[in-house]
Design a protein that fits this description.
This protein is an alpha/beta fold and 382 residues long. It contains nine helices and 16 strands. It is 32% helix and 26% strand.
Length: 382
């Protein structure tokens, strides 16, 4: 697929606007308004906004009934300041599009151009612009929204730009593409006392030390696990900075990660057992909270075959990594319910890494990404 300079320049300008005015997860309301304004220029049958928060969807209906293909973009930014010094740098000191969601949004918005210029003969396309991907909340909120019931896609597709791979390389995997993950906060409550009489209190200090040791052992254990898993300690807190007081409260925070959802279930049970055992041993009350939960992103084999066929037809290089990516993507919530595929597109071997303050989306990959999605749509809908 070829683009006129005018149409491509409009997409890139839109991308740079989003980059300049980023919004964090669950706060993307101005971003959603800007996307809606862009889409209205390309006559969707309807736009459904306020999906599970700030998400919105544009619907393009063909002349005849047929399958429904949903293409998803993520729209939120990260709490990372920008060190770049170009004209479209973020206007907010501690917020930036450091994962390329501005680019993903521009790509799917560019599809609206094509669907307007070349109307569907049959079937239906949903362009979903999803909020709150970075926190793992957006996809689940969209799926839980009653307004989504009317959409009912038959297939779902998404992509992510990937620094470290040559520009426009299509990165594919059968089955597991990206890991499951979740954040754990273990809260331990004992009893404070004067530091001169620690025996009068119940300190969580030894329980914290034991939990950290046992989490490390579980992370390195191979018993009953089928594939890769990892526990990363990210933060601990014991008491307050008060030299006259023994601590009575502590928190241990860790990230659990695995390639498989069944391994995540097993890992979660193991972590809960460790925390409960340590609390019981030292006479503490424990409470565990879970944050930013992502299921594994698992591709449907037939949908991967379609992506591969479109890449080959467009003479694009394909790379198929031996193992899934360790990072997580809440696109996995969709593939738990619908056949679909998530794939990568190379942003340049030496391009700044995702989530780095000097990262910026690579505009040169936009035409290839749009062509990939358009080819996938035509494979299913003709």
């Amino acid at each position: 697929m070829t683009f006129t300079n005018e149409s491509l320049n409009k997409i890139i300008a839109f991308r740079k606007y989003l980059h300049k005015y980023p919004e964090l997860s669950k706060k993307e309301h101005e971003t959603a308004k800007k996307i809606k304004d862009f889409l209205l220029s390309y006559s969707p049958e309807r736009i459904i906004d306020g999906l599970g928060g700030a998400s919105l969807a544009a619907v393009y209906q063909g002349q005849k009934p047929g399958k429904t293909v949903m293409i998803r973009a993520d729209i939120d930014a990260l709490p990372i300041g920008e060190t770049n010094d170009f004209e479209h740098k973020s206007v907010y000191p501690d917020v930036g599009h450091k994962c390329g969601h501005d680019g993903h949004t521009a790509i799917v918005a560019g599809l609206a151009q094509l669907l307007h210029q070349n109307p569907l003969k049959q079937g239906r396309v949903i362009l979903l612009f999803q909020a709150a991907e970075e926190t793992g909340e957006g996809a689940a909120a969209v799926l839980a929204d009653p307004k989504f019931e009317a959409l009912k896609p038959d297939y779902v597709f998404g992509l992510h730009n990937l620094p470290g791979y040559a520009k426009n390389t299509i990165v594919l995997r059968d089955q597991h593409f990206a890991a499951a993950s979740k954040g754990m906060i273990a809260k331990l409550t004992g009893k404070t006392s004067h530091a001169a009489n620690p025996e009068h209190g119940i300190s969580p200090a030894l329980a914290v030390a034991e939990i950290i040791q046992q989490l490390s052992k579980l992370s390195n254990s191979k018993n009953n696990f089928k594939d890769f898993k990892l526990i990363t300690l990210i933060h601990t807190r014991i008491g307050e900075i008060a030299f006259g007081t023994t601590p009575g409260y502590a928190e241990v925070m860790a990230t659990l990660r695995s390639y498989r959802n069944d391994d995540m279930d097993l890992l979660t049970k193991g972590v809960v057992k460790i925390v409960e055992a340590a609390a019981d041993k030292y006479g503490l009350h424990e409470k565990i909270e879970w944050r930013e939960e992502f299921p594994a992103t698992i591709n449907n084999d037939d949908c991967v075959d379609v992506v591969r066929a479109v890449a080959l037809e467009n003479k694009l290089k394909i790379e198929e990594p031996e193992t899934p990516f360790r990072w997580s993507e809440d696109f996995g919530y969709y593939t738990l319910q619908y056949p679909g595929a998530f794939f990568g597109i190379g942003a340049g071997k030496n391009h700044p890494a995702l989530h780095n303050p000097d990262y910026d989306f690579q505009d040169e990959i936009i035409p290839t990404a749009i062509t990939m999605f358009e080819g996938i749509i035509r494979k299913f809908l003709g």
